[in-house]
Amino acid sequence: MRKRVQIGLAVVLLMLAGVVAWQGLRQGEPVYQGKGLSQWLDEYNRAGSMDRTETISAAIRAIGTNGLPFLLAHIRHSDSPLIGKLIALLGKQRILKLPFYGADPYRSTSILALSALGPEAAPLCAELLPVAQNPHTSWWGMLSLLAIGTNSIPTLARICESTNAPVRTEAVLMMSMIASMPRPGFSWGWQKAPVNGRPLFGLGWAVTGADVNGIAALLEHPDAAVRRAAAEALGLYTRPPYNAEAKAAVPALMQAMRDSDVSVRLAAGTTLKKIDPEAAAKAGVGDNPDNADHD
Q1: What is the pTM of this model?
Q2: Which domains are seen in the chain, by residue range?
């Protein structure tokens, strides 16, 4: 009985919170062919296959830059800890199928919308900078900048200046992914939403060997922050299936050991020791990679 009361209370609170959040994000949003932007984003959730998304993407392009503030709001949106607990509670029960998804139903779809807009979404780069720099929201910020494509590269280069190593290595990975193809690709899929069981679209990325090669190429970038991040990022791909690409990066890392920037030399030496200890020893890399001969 007590559990049913808890679930009932959670339902009421979550429905109220959901209505408030839904109305707040939908207010004033642009409309195309009688459907608001959020409805078009929900079509991505229902598509079930990327082959069925082109009509939706065409609608997003028709809405154009008018939709950017609303897409950004969805990407930035985060529920309160209380709402998160309520969603988790409701996700455990199988009695009720509620009319809303739960947490973040339009975040991945908004990022897919940015990909559909491409260069038109470039005005959001400055707004996405703090999202990508924040370790708690970095994943979504990076995906958003990846979706925008080439126009986001200067923003990603700035993120390489971050004091947070995972953030800057993700930024340089995004730069490599964007450079490796005409338009960046994602990994994607559909799952069941935890609250109502409806299809829910999700985005991610998968690192290829070409991406790792692209990171190595960024060791020659004119910005020292990007070179450092590239050297650090290569150290994350020293195991299968990236062995060949890591070994191929050794000459570039050896060259980076002579970089004019000390942080680049340190990062290159640390990664070189992981990939090829013998080459690192020949380069004079000891406990402190900056002790190597740079003449």
Answers
A1: 0.83
A2: 2-149+184-204 (no CATH), 209-291 (1.25.10.10)
